[in-house]
Specification:
Length: about 270
């Protein structure tokens, strides 16, 4: 089957042009991974179009409270300029105007929230973040979490499970098959957790296709989104990795675009 022009990428990062190269290099240094490109709106569009990606989720992370509103304005502006984009805004647990900003985010067209607690330096299950989570849940916006790491103890899968238990109305996307570099714990950890989805980003380079298929079966093909984590990975190369996973055509279509279309009512 030809997937060109149908794929939805549920995980990509962009930054303002003046800081895009510096921000991209910093992420590459943190993970000791050579980045595939610069995280700019222009480069993500070019890479996505080459691979036949139809829609692209774009986001960025607020590492300090004062960055929340400027990032949200930037992401919304990028989405207004490029109909390919679906924007997730930023939030921070030390920000003080959750309800007001979340309503503004919805008004300017943002469809969710992105958190990367390893960069923001708070544990996913820190009780100080519960007010933020409750406000996001009440605003009916999903949260895309970076989950899993071997550098900092802020994003373990078990932490997300505790949050989902405390705030059952929260809808979450656990990136990287539910836990970057702790994939073996993901299926066991998330068993029975509702309102939880996953993406394939920043994982397929490290695990073999058979392991990826096992993770998809365990986590649920109906809850999985395809994602690249651009600019860390090139769209075309990442799609080739995904296509090497032994899946039936029904599962491929679900993960590549149907699940995202259903959840986000596209």
């Amino acid at each position: 089957m030809d997937y060109f022009g149908k794929v939805i990428d549920a995980h990509g990062h962009i930054y303002p042009e003046k800081i895009a190269q510096k921000a991209t290099e910093a992420i590459g240094e943190f993970y000791s991974i050579p980045m595939a490109a610069i995280g700019s709106a222009a480069e993500i569009t070019l890479s996505a179009e080459r691979a036949g990606v139809r829609r692209q989720l774009v986001c960025s992370t607020a590492t300090a409270p004062h960055q929340v509103e400027p990032i949200n304005d930037f992401i919304a502006s990028a989405c207004a300029e490029n109909p390919m984009f679906i924007g997730f805004g930023a939030m921070h647990p030390q920000y003080t105007q959750f309800e007001k900003e979340l309503e503004r985010m919805k008004a300017i067209g943002l469809r969710g929230v992105k958190l990367h607690t390893d960069f923001q330096r708070f544990r996913i299950d820190d009780a100080a973040a519960d007010e933020m989570y409750r406000c996001v849940a009440e605003a009916s916006l999903p949260v895309l979490f970076h989950v899993g790491d071997d550098k900092r103890p802020y994003s373990e899968p078990e932490q997300l499970c505790r949050v989902m238990e405390r705030i059952p109305k929260l809808v979450a996307i656990a990136a990287h098959f539910g836990g970057y570099r702790c994939w073996d714990r993901a299926v066991r950890c998330y068993s029975g957790v509702e309102n939880l989805y996953f993406d394939t980003s920043s994982s397929l380079y490290f695990i073999n296709p058979e392991t990826a298929a096992e993770l998809i079966e365990g986590l649920g093909e109906d809850r999985m989104f395809y994602g690249t984590d651009f600019p860390m990975w090139d769209h075309k190369e990442e799609l080739e990795r995904f296509m090497s996973i032994p899946l039936c055509e029904t599962a491929r279509k679900k993960i590549l675009w149907e699940n995202f279309e259903r959840v986000f009512a596209l």
